[in-house]
DNA sequence: ACGGGCTATGGAGCATCGCTCCATAAATGG
DNA sequence: CCATTTATGGAGCGATGCTCCATAGCCCGT
């Protein structure tokens, strides 16, 4: 009976919520944001909508689960116990998210949407925990833990959501040449703006063309960290 | 003929891109995010889809135009010439956006989505200009204008997109009592999390229940501003 | 061994969406 | 006054998320 029982745990092993989420991520990675439909899922999984909705309940719920899965692996690369300085912990977690977004172009939009629709969902919670722990280790007084961590998380999410490949297609990450071309076009467009309405944009058009997203992301992190350690000097 | 010409400028004044955007904002404010459909628009404007698509081209374009309109008025409340300290200019612009989001609940999701889909669209440009000008006045060296402003804008957008009414309905802003109830429930849920997985979240559950979004938003702004003035001390 | 009850499946189909097409009415220009 | 252009609104297409339901597979008590 032991054998029967072990087999029965998976019935015919056809469908699991886990397997659905997994294929959803595959589909999102391969074809892009707009291609994750229940029909595409039924095709890949050789089943019908009823079977999927038995496990998943909602399309938004599936997207949330897919996002949570990717974010979890992105943050799980760090060891459980902190090894370096708290600042490095924060940088590592932030970069984990940043790289996950560049690797999964659909993640940026999903992070943003779920941040608005369910501000304290599992994804936000996970990120908050990963950033909050080193913030605590940073010597920030307990009364400021929440606000300080919020500031960091908000910056990270704002920056990662804007850092998406600006290619026409949604699926392919876009080559380096495409990116250079895009930045060039944008920079030129900025030069042509109305000097009365957009003097500042025109002034930074050059910097914008030559900037590196990842490097700038880290600079922003350090800027916020500087603010934190200035307001709360380590004892 | 002059009279004819003046009349002809507006034909029968039935449809304008401006009028469509205006009704779109009304609809979004009244019924909520998911209720802005072309059919709802044709109903309110007593016309057909063809007429609307003659002016608008795309549903996303309409949403972008609506967002841009609201953001423009939110930022336009400030005088053209700076009157106070650069820090106050930045706070004013940020609060303008913050209040616009609380007034138009759909704005948060739209800001987020457009930030990912079109990172350098008109909306982002407008916000960048409003924040960049006081950043320049802050004495930040020219080479750091772009990065510094980016950091601020990213924090502002990240924070405003999370600050949405967490009510079930999408339309009504949600009463004060609803918010208190929601925070209470969330705080209690956090207490019940696994202590091994979420020690930090559990530790800040109390602060989370009692926090004020707007106040915390401003604290975050000041934190970033502290980082800026620390890295770039005013001469 | 076997049959009732629960779990899970996949297909048919519904309501609704964004959007296109097109006949045509209104304004313009020669 | 007519030909041309501009603008309109309705019919309808393809596709979507999701529900409903007949039924197949599995568990368990007898």
Write the layout of secondary structure elements.
The structure is a homodimer of 235-residue chains.
Chain A: H1 2-8, H2 17-31, H3 38-45, H4 49-56, H5 59-76, H6 86-103, H7 106-117, H8 122-137, H9 145-162, H10 176-191, H11 199-203, H12 205-210, H13 213-231
Helix pairs in contact in A: 2-3, 2-5, 5-6, 5-7, 5-8, 6-8, 6-9, 6-13, 7-9, 8-9, 9-13
The structure holds a DNA duplex (30 and 30 nucleotides).
Write a compact overview of the structure shown:
The first copy, chain A, has 13 helices and no strands. With 235 residues, chain A is mostly helical.
Can you give a write-up of this model?
- The structure is a homodimer of 235-residue chains.
- Helix content of chain A is 71%, strand content 0%.
- In chain A, helix 2 packs across helix 5, helix 6 packs antiparallel against helix 8 and helix 8 packs across helix 9.
- The longest helix of chain A has 19 residues.
- With 235 residues, the first copy, chain A, is an all-alpha fold.
- The N terminus of chain A is likely disordered.
- At the A-B interface, helix 7, helix 8, helix 9, helix 11 and helix 13 of A face helix 7, helix 8, helix 9, helix 11 and helix 13 of B.
- The structure holds a DNA duplex (30 and 30 nucleotides).
Considering the chains and any ligands shown, give keywords for the structure.
homodimer, 235 residues, mainly alpha, 13 helices, disordered N terminus, DNA-binding
Q: Report the radius of gyration of chain A as a whole number of Å.
A: 22 Å
Quaternary organisation of the protein chains: homodimer
Number of helices of chain A: 13
Distance between the termini of chain A: 63 Å
Proportion in helices of chain A: over 70%
The fraction of residues assigned to DSSP E strands of chain A is: under 5%
């Amino acid at each position: 009976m032991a054998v029967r029982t072990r087999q029965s745990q998976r019935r015919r092993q056809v469908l699991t919520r886990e397997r659905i989420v997994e294929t959803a991520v595959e589909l999102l990675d391969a074809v892009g944001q707009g291609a994750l439909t229940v029909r595409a899922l039924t095709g890949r999984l050789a089943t019908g909508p009823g079977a999927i909705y038995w496990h998943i309940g909602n399309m938004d719920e599936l997207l949330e689960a897919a996002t949570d899965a990717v974010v979890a692996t992105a943050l799980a690369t760090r060891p459980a116990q902190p090894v370096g300085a708290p600042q490095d912990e924060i940088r590592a977690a932030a970069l984990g998210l940043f790289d996950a977004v560049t690797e999964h172009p659909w993640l940026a939009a999903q992070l943003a949407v779920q941040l608005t629709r369910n501000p304290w969902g599992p994804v936000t919670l996970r990120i908050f925990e990963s950033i909050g722990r080193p913030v605590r280790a940073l010597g920030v007084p307990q009364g400021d833990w929440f606000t300080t961590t919020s500031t960091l998380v908000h910056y990270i999410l704002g920056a990662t959501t804007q850092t998406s490949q600006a290619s026409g297609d949604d699926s392919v990450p876009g080559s380096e040449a495409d990116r250079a071309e895009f930045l060039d076009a944008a920079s030129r467009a900025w030069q042509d703006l109305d000097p009365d309405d957009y003097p500042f944009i025109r002034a930074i058009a050059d910097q914008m063309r030559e900037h590196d997203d990842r490097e700038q992301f880290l600079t922003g992190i350090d800027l916020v960290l500087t603010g934190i350690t200035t307001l709360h000097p380590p004892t």
